[in-house]
Design goal:
Layout lengths: L4 H27 L6 H13 L1 H11 L26 H8 L6 E2 L1 E5 L3 H14 L3 E6 L6 H15 L3 E7 H6 L5 H6 L3 E5 L19 E4 L3 E5 L21 E5 L1 H17 L18 E7 L7 H12 L3 E5 L3 E2 L2 H12 L3 E7 L5 H16 L3 E5 L7 E4 L3 E5 L3 E2 H6 L2 E6 L2 H15 L3 E2 L7 H13 L4
Parallel strand pairs: 3-4, 4-5, 10-12, 11-16, 12-13
Antiparallel strand pairs: 1-9, 2-8, 3-6, 6-7, 7-8, 9-17, 10-14, 13-18, 14-15, 15-17
């Protein structure tokens, strides 16, 4: 059969492009020891085969998700003599993944709402005598952002060292706040991986989603809130989102401050400083800062969540704005429900990401079929928390979706004190009391196709 020379030439070029794309993918994955979810791996291969001219540039920009190789853990912390009781597995697992040991804290306050969270934030900033470290995904160009800027300027002019770390993409989403005003007043501002001139080749899709404020390495404010009005008291035209945050005093704050120092050095292009683990035994109550992201050899929060589901005996209650879990996490939650663990998942009936809302129903149907209860609140819920029995409360910045668990730089705090775990569980129960039970419906062919298409297109999101 005769083939036009131009067609044959085009097919040859396409075949060469496919071979180059697949070769780059295989070599990069092998050399960098990149572990991927099977759906992500299949997605990249299909893109390389079908549209290599687009797929290869996308892979070079967004294809790498780890900055350290699998198994390259930092030195383990010394054995904790307190780990002689039952339910020590969260600390043991965290230590095995290179996380710092548990540290003590005092005066934990779980913020009831945005007003209380804002008041606690102002108190912490005003209390700083020597140093303030602030990290967030975005800073809003609104009434809350303006108030924060004024306070930071006042502290800097009073002689306090103030450092603000914002994500490079988050700055754009926050409305391009005027950072020069801060810098001219003596506030040190650094952007984490600006999108248009990223220093991370092949890693432009990795964002810093951690949120914390540390004063004098002695006080910590943390949770899911960014520095914008919708996360606190809203605006005259928009109701505030419901979110979860907390503040505390003690050595745990220093642990968070050390993580900030690591991110700050990395954002400025310096080597990450070595973090030295304390050797003294900490009194109760204790908690751990759990860092998750490309700077960790393992998917730490994901591993803790999956293990927690298998260890749960009576109760799992969780809140997240977006629920697009990995197959492993979905199976762990489903198996917990099948063995009569009470599993409650709280979500907003409509989040601020429509694609995530569409993609979540496949997992929600499977989870509900297993016996879990899914609850929809009638407002935007941005809280990120999981409570397991009276053993563990994981609270912080990570959503139960692939971007948070596998791509973003995230920060969770693992609490082990029974009374404080019950405090977070009570906050979640109050949200559940405002919710309506989700009832799954049989999905038609078009619905399943659209959900699958969204998941396939967003395999790296």
């Amino acid at each position: 059969m005769w083939t036009h020379p131009l067609v044959a030439y085009s097919l040859s070029l396409h075949g060469l492009a496919v071979m180059i794309g697949l070769l780059v993918y295989v070599l990069a994955s092998h050399t960098l020891q990149q572990r991927r979810h099977p759906a992500a791996a299949v997605g990249w291969v299909l893109v390389m085969v079908l549209i290599p001219y687009v797929g290869l540039p996308l892979y070079l920009l967004f294809g790498t998700r780890k900055l350290v190789r699998s198994g390259s853990h930092p030195p383990l912390a010394p054995p904790d003599p307190n780990l002689i009781f039952d339910n020590a597995w969260p600390r043991q697992l965290a230590a095995a993944m290179g996380q710092p040991p548990a540290a003590s804290y005092q005066n934990l306050r779980i913020h009831a709402d945005g007003t209380q969270a804002l008041q606690a934030l102002w108190e912490l900033i005003d209390s700083a005598e020597h140093e303030l470290k602030l990290c967030a995904f975005l800073l809003g160009r609104d009434v809350m952002g303006d108030a924060l800027v004024k306070r930071l300027i006042a502290k800097a002019r009073a002689g306090v060292q103030v450092r603000l770390l914002l994500d490079g993409v988050g700055r754009m989403l926050g409305g391009w706040p005027n950072l020069r005003v801060l810098e001219s007043a003596g506030v040190h501002v650094t952007l984490f991986v600006p999108l248009l001139h990223s220093p991370l080749k092949g890693r432009s899709n990795l964002r810093n989603h951690r949120k914390m404020v540390v004063a004098d390495d002695a006080r910590l404010w943390c949770g899911g809130r960014n520095f914008a009005a919708e996360y606190f008291e809203g605006t005259p035209h928009h109701a505030p989102w419901r979110d979860l945050s907390f503040d505390l005093h003690g050595p745990l704050a220093r642990q968070a401050g050390e993580l900030f120092e690591s991110d700050w050095a990395f954002a400025q292009g310096f080597p990450r400083p070595e973090i030295k683990f304390p050797t003294q035994t900490m009194p109760e109550p204790v908690a751990q800062v759990i860092a998750s992201g490309p700077d960790q050899a393992d998917d730490t929060v994901h591993a803790l969540l999956v293990t927690a589901c298998f260890n749960a005996r009576s109760r799992i209650i969780a809140a997240t704005p977006y629920f697009v879990p990995s197959d492993e996490l979905l199976m762990a939650l489903s198996l917990a429900a099948w063995r009569n663990v009470k599993v409650d998942l709280i979500l907003p009936v409509r989040s601020n990401h429509r694609m995530a809302d569409l993609a979540r129903h496949r997992s929600l149907r499977d989870l509900a079929t297993a016996g879990a209860r899914i609850w929809f609140v009638p407002y935007m819920l941005h809280a990120k928390a999981v409570v397991i029995d009276d053993v563990l409360a994981l609270v912080g910045t990570a959503n139960l979706d692939a971007r948070s668990l596998f791509l973003n730089y995230e920060l969770m705090v693992a609490f082990y004190n029974g009374a404080d775990i019950q405090g977070f569980a009570g906050w979640l129960e109050a949200e559940r009391a405002r919710a309506k039970r989700y009832r799954p419906h049989v999905a038609g062919v078009l619905r399943k196709l659209s959900e699958g298409l969204v998941l396939w297109l967003a395999f790296q999101l």
